Amino acid sequence: MDKKLLSNTPEDDDAQLNTFKKRRAGHKGKVTIFKNYIESLNSKKKIALTELEILQLKKSFEVYKTLEHDFDVNQTLIEDIVGVSDEQLKEREQFDSEYQNQLALAMQLMRDNRADLLQTLEEKHKQNHVDIKSNKPAQNQTSTSRSPSCPLCKAQHYLFSCPDFKQMTVEKRIEKVSKMNVCSNCLYPGHEKENMSWRYMQILFSKT
Q1: pTM of the predicted model, to two decimals?
Q2: Structural domains in the chain, sorted by start
Q3: Per the record, which residues fall in region Disordered (predicted)?
């Protein structure tokens, strides 16, 4: 069969080019949508994101990361038709600049709020420990200045923050906790696990 019969006509190229350009515009639009999303989260300023918002951000971030590859594939198809001109190089540069900028902002936002979340969780653990020992509302308590002491490595931190403890398998953690005078739910000393909410069990059985 004559190869000329298999080649695209100028009309075919124009139709494909329009399709690819529309797709490129869609990729740019998704970057803009993600940019607006990040700006809306950053507009909260000093207000930390909720756990749900952080999870939603992580999910959106993973989807956003696929845009770079999708844009590159589509832009290559455009360049196959029109050639690699200054105009097409500019398209790549503009997309990459905005894409990378929003990528960095999202990563920074996740790092900042992850630190805030960990601090909040640790403060909740400390407050629960005070509440249980005193059987009084949290707002009536006076915080203690005594430094924590890890029953495992003897460093000045709580067991649930201990790097050595976190590196253990779940089975090893259970074995160690059973030999220590600590609650097997929240890993604080001084009370029985029956007094604790079930949600703290995740500390002991977490694989991270």
Answers
A1: 0.52
A2: 8-131 (1.20.58), 146-205 (no CATH)
A3: 126-147
